């Protein structure tokens, strides 16, 4: 069953406007690091999951963590490179310093820094920051999303046959996810690849219609939720369920915290198109234990 995407969600009563300023400061801090290393010589290491990592990934996440420890020491942090640091309350920052490391290391300015603030597992604030192109998307629950401070809206497109689709790479799909994705790919007007988080920004700005991806982790998509919703779009897992993150306390490692959560994301600028595509995906995942 497809869950409805609430158009009337509200911020938590204890949300502070300063959190928005902090999110922008985090993006600024990460951007200083990534801009310094972009198209410069550096070593590329391989992580245990065979994905690449650079000094820019690690230094930019450390810069964001350092800032958070100073301004909101009671908040939790979950980052791609250094795992989970528990907070004493309901707020957790979920950060990906360089989403699109392969783009970054090959000099393509379509990577981005992803910053999300979650309240009890629900994303209420999100930023996509592209420091080279100097583009920053901001989404806050219940408010219009912006690109560089100007309000943005998704565009209407109810028919998959008219839709422009993005996914980072066809290699992110295999087995049953590939079968489901291919049904959508074959139905749209034009499928395209290679934008990482930047594709979601394009969707929010009304420049494309669909992003359908798999093999993602919570830090890859939590920041996208408030941005897409605040621009009038819809974003869920492939079953139409809301994207939330409420991990177990048993294992604080980043690998454990990223497991057991939807790796499949479907975003659409048009809510009707989103529902059509969810039905087209007809996704039946293996059991997910939260």
From TrEMBL:
Q: Which reaction(s) does the protein catalyse, per the Swiss-Prot or TrEMBL entry?
A: L-histidinol phosphate + H2O = L-histidinol + phosphate
Cofactor requirement: Mg(2+)
Pfam families xrefs: Inositol_P
Q: Which SUPFAM superfamilies match?
A: Carbohydrate phosphatase
Name of the protein this chain belongs to: histidinol-phosphatase
Does the entry feature the keyword Metal-binding, yes or no? Answer: yes
Q: Does the keyword Amino-acid biosynthesis apply?
A: yes
Q: Which GO terms describe its biological process?
A: L-histidine biosynthetic process
What Gene Ontology molecular function terms does this protein carry?
histidinol-phosphatase activity; metal ion binding
Q: Which principal EC class is assigned to this enzyme?
A: hydrolase
InterPro entries in the record: His_9_proposed, Inositol_monoP_metal-BS, Inositol_monoP_superfamily, Inositol_monophosphatase-like
Task: Name the EC number(s).
Answer: 3.1.3.15
The species this protein belongs to is: Chlamydomonas eustigma
Q: Which protein family is it in?
A: Belongs to the inositol monophosphatase superfamily.
Which keywords fit this entry according to its UniProt record? Amino-acid biosynthesis, Histidine biosynthesis, Hydrolase, Magnesium, Metal-binding
Q: Which pathway does the UniProt entry assign to this protein?
A: Amino-acid biosynthesis; L-histidine biosynthesis; L-histidine from 5-phospho-alpha-D-ribose 1-diphosphate: step 8/9
């Amino acid at each position: 069953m497809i869950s409805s995407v609430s158009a009337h969600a509200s911020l938590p009563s204890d949300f502070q406007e300063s959190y928005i300023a902090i999110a922008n400061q985090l993006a600024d801090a990460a951007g200083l690091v990534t801009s310094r290393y972009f198209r410069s010589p550096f070593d590329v290491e391989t992580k245990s999951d065979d994905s690449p990592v650079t000094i820019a990934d690690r230094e930019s996440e450390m810069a964001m963590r350092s800032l958070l420890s100073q301004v909101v020491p009671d908040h939790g942090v979950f980052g791609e490179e250094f795992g989970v640091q528990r907070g004493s309350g309901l707020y957790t920052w979920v950060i990906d310093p360089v989403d699109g490391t392969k783009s970054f290391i090959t000099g393509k300015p379509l990577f981005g820094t992803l910053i999300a603030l979650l309240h009890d597992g629900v994303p209420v604030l999100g930023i996509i920051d592209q420091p080279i192109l100097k583009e920053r998307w901001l989404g806050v629950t219940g408010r219009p999303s912006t690109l560089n401070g100007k309000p943005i809206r998704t565009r209407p497109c109810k028919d998959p046959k008219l839709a422009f689709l993005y996914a980072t790479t066809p290699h992110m799909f295999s087995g049953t996810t590939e079968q489901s994705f291919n049904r959508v790919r074959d139905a749209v007007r034009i499928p395209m690849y290679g934008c990482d988080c930047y594709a979601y920004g394009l969707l929010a700005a009304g420049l494309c219609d669909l992003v359908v991806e798999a093999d993602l982790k919570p830090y890859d998509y939590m920041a996208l939720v408030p941005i897409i919703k605040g621009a009038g779009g819809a974003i869920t897992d492939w079953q139409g369920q809301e994207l939330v993150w409420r991990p177990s306390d048993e294992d604080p490692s980043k690998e454990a915290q990223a497991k057991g959560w939807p790796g499949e994301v479907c975003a659409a600028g048009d809510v009707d198109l989103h529902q059509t595509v969810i039905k087209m995906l007809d996704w039946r995942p293996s059991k997910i234990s939260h």
